[in-house]
Amino acid sequence: MSGELRQGGTLERSPGVRPSTWFVWHAHRITPGSRVLDLACGEGRHSLAAAALGAKVLAVDRDPLKLASARTRAAAAGLSIEWREMDLEGEWPELEPFDAVLVFNYLDRANMPRILRLVAPGGLLIMETFLEAQREAGWGPTSSDHLLRAGELAGLVAPLTVLHGREALEVVDAEHWRAVASVVAQKR
Fold first, then answer.
1. What does the pLDDT read at residue 2?
2. CATH number of the CATH domain containing 23
3. Neighbours of 112 (CB within 10 A)
4. Would you state the pLDDT for residue 164?
């Protein structure tokens, strides 16, 4: 099923814009009014889904074209999201901690301490990105800088407490699969 979460939590069919399965499984953890940061948001599929759940979302990405597409989709869905163009490899503005930080299909080991500091006490990091085994799928990132080693993610999110994690091969469509590591971790 493809689609997009809308205000009130309903799903609108629209190819290629649905949030990841990992997000959908853990969406109940995002509550109305919670502050959510979506890092490297791309076209905003997770930002839109969190806003549809009633969260106050700040979404950042360095690609102005993807942000423009995300803004258009948010406006069409009647969702209010703060979009910021920002290169995560450069300087970051001072940000207050968030109730949830979303990181999907993005890996920057050097910035993990900074990302973890953005999680408020009691807050969550919901993260999913590719494993080295993704190379065998013939698509996606190929650089070791952007691929996790097996078992690596739990160490990267420490000292947060892992509530749920997995490493999986997941079907994308009839012709593609992906190798991912996923985690929901909480700051105590």
1. 35
2. 3.40.50.150
3. 18
4. 97
